[in-house]
Amino acid sequence: MTSTTVRSVCPYCGVGCGIVMSVTDNQVTRVSGDKQHPSNLGRLCTKGLTCHQPLRESGRMEWAWLRDQRQRDPVRLGIDQAIGQTARRLRAIIDTHGPDAVALYVSGQMSLEAQYLANKLVKGYIRSRHIESNSRLCMASAGSGYKLSLGADGPPGSYEDFDRAEVFLVIGANMADCHPILFLRLLDRLKAGARLIVVDPRRSASADKADLFLQVRPGTDLALLNGLLHLLLENGHTDNAFIERYTEGWEEMPAFLADYAPARVAQITGLAEADIRQAAALIGGAKDWMSCWTMGLNQSIHGTWHSNAVCNLHLATGAICRPGSGPSPSPVSPTPWADGKWATWARACRGNVRRWSKPIAGSSRRFGASPPAACVPRRAKAPSICSGRWQRGRSRPAGSSAATRWPASPTARR
Asked: What three-state secondary structure class fits 195?
């Protein structure tokens, strides 16, 4: 009997927790948290602790099956034979109809290595342009919102911000159930005196831990976010020096925000006006604050504008690109930013130390988004600065996915 341990990463949600697998006779027998990993520091949720079970008792098909003709039953055959048969059929399709006759649909549940190989196969070898990912539905709104506001689609913060933030705005996310390891890190910070605002149409496990729970009517998040910015401006909680130096387009915002006075926002959202004012006061009074959101904002016909509105709050208060502050969308699968990087839209993997890069030419022309002047990784010994453009998002009629999630894309313009 031979035993060893292997360090790896949990295959489930997008937190990216480190795991240590105990391997006996080439079988994973136990999984524990990796105390050296910066994402979880040894903590694991139930899914992570049991992620080895599907390797042994998955309930999935363990053999290849081939159906020679549609009306016949499939016949079991060896894996090597099945791979050869698949390759021959694909080769025939490509020879007859060309490489673009082949398309691949991938997933954020795939590993980084699998993402790379899938794209190398489709783009590099077959030369097809058709590869898509389910991560577009998950994170495209966040990515396109970032590009419109900040000029690049990479999240500007890191998990270390959880350890320094004074206020957390959790909106469109139930972190307690969906990202429990990050939520535990947030709770550690609450014990040190930080405050938590949760915005959700339903009372969730996250809301139970909140200092302020805003139970909005479904579909009114955008009005609330614009209303919070209205109050930040009214209460003198904007960072005018930051706005002047690092942003453009602010001169148009006061007139736009005039439509989102607290009384009107309260009427739209169903919230008490006092609660809206309290939320704005908590954000405005914090030296450093974070926003955390996920599918509740992204999977919406206004998803891009939701991201813009969140970024606007950070730009207004200067709470971005510095420790303890920044907008932080939480992916729901391990590699949504990465498979987007290779397959669809994103150009930065979550968790990397990065500099902002200029957007692809023409990608943001319609709305005039500009790239930041500079954003130095916080591990570098230099001031972290970031710039962005103000985006004014109102509620808009329902439309096609391209038009609502990718308003600046050539497809949407056509």
From this structure: strand
Which three-class secondary structure state does DSSP give residue 370? coil
What is the C-alpha end-to-end distance of the chain, expressed in Å?
A: 64
Cα separation, 260 vs 112, in Å, equals: 43
Tally of CA atoms within 13 A in the half-sphere of 327 that contains its CB: 29
Closest CA to 276 of 290, 291, 261: 261
Q: Using the structure block, give the residue that is written with the tokens 């996920």.
A: 294
Q: What are the pLDDT digits (tens) for 242-269?
A: 999 999 889 999 999 999 999 999 999 9
* Predicted confidence (pLDDT) at residue 283 exceeds the cutoff of 90: yes
**Sheet of strand 195-199: strand arrangement:** 212-214, 195-199, 167-171, 289-293, 326-329
Q: DSSP secondary structure string, 35-69?
A: TT-TTTTT---HHHHTTTHHHHS--S--SEEE-SS
Please give the model's pTM, rounded to 2 decimal places: 0.75
Give the 3-state secondary structure of residue 235: coil
Long-range contacts (CB closer than 8 Å, 24 or more residues apart) made by 260-263: 260/223, 260/226, 260/227, 260/229, 260/230, 261/227, 261/230, 262/227, 262/230, 262/231
Domains of the chain are 3-56 (2.20.25.90), 70-133 (no CATH), 140-413 (3.40.228.10)
